[in-house]
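Final report, Chapter 2: Outcomes

The project's central promise was a pipeline that accepts a single protein chain and returns its three-dimensional structure in a standardized token representation, suitable for archiving and comparison. That pipeline is now operational. To close this chapter, we reproduce one record exactly as it appears in the project archive, with the input sequence first and the structure output second.
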Amino acid sequence: MEKKKGISISLTTQILIATVGGIVFGAIIGEWAANLKFIGDIFLRLIQMSVVLLVMSAVAAAVGSGDGQDVGKMGFHTFKWIILFTIISAGFGVVLSMLFKPGVGISLGDAEELANTAVESSSLQETILGFVPTNVISSMAEGAMVPCIVFALFFGIAMGAYTKQSGNRVMVEWVKSLNAVITNIIKTVMHIAPIGIFCLLANVAGSTGLKVIIPMLKFLGVLLIGDVIQFLLFGPFTAALCKINVTKMPKKFAKMSIMAVTTTSGAICLPTKMEDAVTKFGVSRKVADFTGPITMSMNSCGAAQCYVAAIFFMAQATGIQMSVYQMGMAILLSCLMCMGTISVPGGSVIVYTFLASSLGLSLDSIAVLIGIDWFAGMFRTLMNVDVDVMVGMLVASKLGELDRDVYNEVKTVTY
């Protein structure tokens, strides 16, 4: 007997439907939709519970499986592109903020009271010192990604040296197996992504609505325009160097882009980004496992642009004219704060506080930025996640680890 074929809807399409449905449902139902937030939070936690182990096992396996020369080349080319893209993004933040002046005409109102609740920032020296863990177990428990990556790098280097000296690959295979198990956990959790995203967006649309967005449309517009310009610049640039067809990129970026916009979290998007880099873009597993976690924590083009725009917003909203020196410091500090900042929703409030205090700007305007941070996070994360893959592609192409047959859909691979 002939079996009836059911309707198959891809996960990307399901997430897109959930995105629209959640916004519409929340806008209609109103504040009651906040009751659904806990379901979305459960989805986020199910992803977050595995991200640290995924990152550490992926980095350790990528470093420990290759020789020192391979690791050195991957590291050099990865950080080369991270630095270049981040500086360009911060520069766009300056130019667009000077053109559109997002802070002009904003009334701060009761901002001072809200701003007093902002988290006290650490100094730049303490931030950099925090990259090195004193207790990796504590860093894992706190979800501090950069200290975990630093430990994983050392662990991978030591594991590779031990394997080379002894010929014993038991530890390498164990780490790879752990990574495979964690990957399977995340793939299972991703089946409920549409439900989680629907509930998260219903809560945002129901509780926030447009009342906070309307006064800040100019600020959000700066981020949107900056994202569009950078995609139009970085996409063809990456395609040209990798010798691939740029017109195929938008479709391949679709799923991770929707995840980025709806979750506003680079950490939540990490598993999807790493899988798609291998299965859609043709990046080798070795390169994807190395560049994926590192770019998540340190390549934050969207964040750099957003932080620079936030600095100009804070200055313009309080009538301060920024000097050339302050503009230069805005770019420098924004780029530095992109390295290892909190990669979950809401972490940017710490960065805003640090930037304001470092440049002598009023903390009052931070409250307004906090009010629309979820929406700003959409544009930050979208740029961060997609450029992460471009960095992986550029590194893979340079090292001969980019499979163009996979990119061109001539053959398929699994992650």
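Archive annotation: The first helix runs from residue 11 to 29.
This record, like all others produced under the grant, will remain available to the consortium after the project formally closes.
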